[in-house]
Design brief:
The protein has 268 residues and is an alpha/beta fold. It folds into two domains: 133 residues, Trna Endonuclease, Chain: A, domain 1 (3-Layer(aba) Sandwich); 121 residues, no CATH class. Helix content is 31%, strand content 25%. It has six helices and twelve strands. The strands form three sheets. The chain has a six-stranded mixed beta sheet with strand order 1-2-3-10-11-12, sandwiched between helices. It has a four-stranded mixed beta sheet with strand order 7-8-6-9, covered by helices on one side. A hairpin with a 2-residue loop joins β4 and β5. α2 crosses α3. The longest helix has 22 residues. The chain is elongated and about 70 Å long. The chain starts with a helix and ends in a 6-residue tail after the last strand.
Amino acid sequence: MEADEEKAVASFREHLRSKGFQSGDPIVGEDPPECYLKIGGTDYAVEVMRLVDSVPIDRKAWSRATYEHWAQCLAKEIEEEAKARKVLKGSYQLRVCGPFENAPKLEKTIRRAALQFIGSTQDCPVGCGKFLVSPNEKGLPTGNGRTDLSPEYLHGVGQKFCAITKRGSEPAQVIPRIDSPHWFAWKQDHINEARSLLQGAIFRKKHKLRGVSQPRILILPDNFRYIDTGIYKACFDELQCLEDFHTVCLVDANQQVLMVFTANKSWR
């Protein structure tokens, strides 16, 4: 298990202790399961699976983490190239609100346009900006006559875009900002996404553990930062195959445990 998965198991054990149930240290399993926990004299097979949302780009799915990493690397590359050209004399923000179509294919275009903008705005006031990918997703804009891309204005755009704005005279850097791919989603969209994440994890782990005879515990560290526990709770009653596990639980970013299902009500 990776460090964050081990941390989720530790949080689960701490939750059980708070309910009056002691567990032994995890014992590495045969994968499956990833580990065993002895609780009240019973050995439980434990599997851990991180919940990570997916972002569709170019007919394939990027995880949210991959999407953020792409934007962060792009900002770093623009910063390093601008410094190498000796044109970076202020602080800029590369703001990505998406996912927009063909993001990887537009990378060179974005980089070139961003470097051109940085080089031409050393003496321009803070707040000046440019769309690198336009809100209408039809490529780079030919110009809409606007150079003030303030946060208030960008918030009101209401579509997917990539833009660069000047933030200050120093330090010399390009700061990435990645907005939620679900910024404009309705609550029901979030519930559907939460259900899909949970159900997918349950189906995959059910299949993986099909040859394991011990009672099964599925621990799900929640890496999807744009769904709160209330949204998850709204879809619990619609999940299938929960009875194939003794316990299914979520572990949030604060290491709090939320029981999705358990055969032992005293564990809740």
